[in-house]
Design goal:
This protein has 359 residues and is an all-beta fold. The chain is 1% helix and 42% strand. Strands 19, 20, 21, 22 and 23 form a five-stranded antiparallel sheet that branches. A four-stranded antiparallel sheet has the order 3-2-1-28, with no helix packed on it.
C-alpha cells in the first residue's frame, strides 16, 4: 500500500509518496507556495482519504484547504473556514493543529489555533465553529504566549470514549474535558514551570507537545519547556521521565502507533541554546514508557548538526515508520522503529509539521 508523507513548511506543502517496500520517494510541491503550513492531517475515516492543510498567507491570512484526491486538487472555501465570532474581539493568527475525531464521529475535525482556542468542524473540515466553553474558561485571561506564540497546538480525542478530549497549549498547559468539550479542567499536576513564581501551578505551564500511548489510552507523554513527563491517569497527574535523556528540553514527543510504552523525543541543549545536544543528530527512544532511553542515529548526519526539530515535525506512521523534518529542510524516515534512517528530502524550506499514513 502506498505511503503518503505530508510535509508542511514555511513556504508551502510538499507531498512525498512511496510505493510498498521501495526505498525511494517521489516528492511533489510546493502546494500553496509561499504560505506557512503549520498543520496537516490525513483523515482516513471514509472510503477516500481526505488531506487537510492549515496554511497562513502573509497577504490573505490563515485558511484550511481539503483534498479528496491525495493532493491532485484542493478545495478552499471562499469564506474563512476558521474565524472568531465578532463578539470575542479576537483575530485568527493561524491554525496550529488539525485532528480528526474518532470513527464514531466521521465528520468531526478539531482545530487548535492561535490565539489559544479550539474549533470544531462537523462537515469534515470545510467549516468550523468556536468551542466557547474553552474560550470562555476563567483561566484564559492568564494564559500567556510562548516564544512561538500563544496556541492550542495539540488535540487528543480519546480513542474509545468520545466524551473525553485533551488539549495542550503554550502557554497554559494541559486541559481535559470529560463531557465532549462542554467543560474543561486543567491537568498539569506534577509539571514544573520553573519560570513562574510558583513553580508548580495549577495551569500556566509551557507544554510543547503531548502524545497518547498505543496500548494504554490513559497513558500520556509530554515534552515541556524543560521537562519530559508521563501520566498514567489521562493527565490528572504527571511524573518526570527525563532521567536518561541528555537534556529535558525539546519540542516533539511521539508515541509509537502500535507498540505500547514506546516513545520518541528529539532533545535540544536548552531553551537558551536550541541546538541538538553535542551538535549530533539523534532521536531518542524509550521502549519502557520513559524508564530508559537510547540514542538512535544510524543513517543520520554524522558531522556537527545544528538544526532543531519543531513540535509537529516528528510523527509515526502506521507500522514501524517514524519521520522527522528539520528547520534546515531535511526530512528523514525510519522503517524499523528508529533503528536506522534514510533521507526522504533535502533543501526544503523550514519544516513545520509532518504527517504520514498508508493510503
Amino acid at each position: 500500500m502506498p505511503t503518503l508523507l505530508a510535509i508542511g513548511t514555511a513556504k508551502g506543502l510538499f507531498l512525498a509518496t512511496r510505493e510498498g517496500a521501495r526505498a525511494d520517494w517521489e516528492v511533489s510541491g510546493p502546494h500553496f507556495p509561499m504560505t506557512g503550513v503549520y498543520a496537516v492531517a490525513v483523515d482516513r475515516r471514509r472510503g477516500t482519504p481526505r488531506l487537510l492543510a492549515g496554511m497562513t498567507s502573509s497577504h490573505f491570512g490563515p485558511s484550511v484547504a481539503t483534498s479528496d484526491d491525495l493532493g491532485a486538487s484542493w478545495v478552499e472555501p471562499e469564506q474563512a473556514p476558521v474565524a472568531f465570532p465578532a463578539d470575542t474581539g479576537a483575530t485568527l493568527g493561524r491554525v496550529w493543529q488539525l485532528t480528526p475525531a474518532g470513527p464514531d464521529a466521521p465528520d468531526v475535525v478539531w482545530a487548535g489555533t492561535e490565539p489559544s482556542a479550539l474549533f470544531r468542524s462537523d462537515d469534515g473540515g470545510h467549516s468550523f465553529t468556536l468551542v466557547r466553553s474553552l474560550w470562555d474558561h476563567p483561566h484564559r485571561e492568564e494564559w500567556g504566549a510562548g516564544f512561538g506564540g500563544q496556541a492550542v497546538h495539540t488535540v487528543l480525542p480519546h480513542p474509545t470514549d468520545p466524551q473525553r478530549i485533551t488539549v495542550a497549549m503554550s502557554t497554559g498547559g494541559v486541559y481535559r474535558s470529560a463531557d465532549a468539550g462542554a467543560s474543561w479542567s486543567p491537568a498539569n499536576t506534577g509539571i514544573r514551570a520553573y519560570f513562574l513564581p510558583d513553580e508548580w501551578p495549577e495551569f500556566g505551564q509551557c507544554v510543547h507537545k503531548i502524545a497518547r500511548d498505543a496500548g494504554n489510552s490513559d497513558r500520556l507523554y509530554a515534552q515541556n519547556h524543560h521537562g519530559v513527563y508521563r501520566s498514567d491517569d489521562d493527565g490528572r497527574s504527571w511524573t518526570s521521565i527525563a532521567a536518561g535523556l541528555p537534556s529535558d528540553f525539546g519540542f516533539p514527543i511521539v508515541a509509537h502507533p502500535s507498540r505500547p510504552g514506546t516513545v520518541f523525543a528529539f532533545p535540544l541543549v536548552a531553551d537558551g541554546e536550541r541546538f541538538p545536544v553535542e551538535h549530533r543528530c539523534r532521536v531518542f527512544r524509550s521502549a519502557d514508557a520513559g524508564g530508559k532511553w537510547e540514542p538512535l542515529s544510524v543513517g543520520l548526519p554524522e558531522g556537527p548538526f545544528y538544526p532543531s526539530v519543531l513540535r509537529d515535525a516528528m510523527c509515526a506512521g502506521d507500522s514501524s515508520d517514524v519521520y522527522f523534518g528539520t528547520r534546515s529542510g531535511e526530512v528523514y524516515a525510519s522503517r524499523d522503529d528508529g533503528d536506522s534512517w534514510s533521507q526522504v528530502a533535502a533543501h526544503l524550506p523550514d519544516v513545520l509539521c509532518v504527517r504520514a499514513a498508508e493510503v
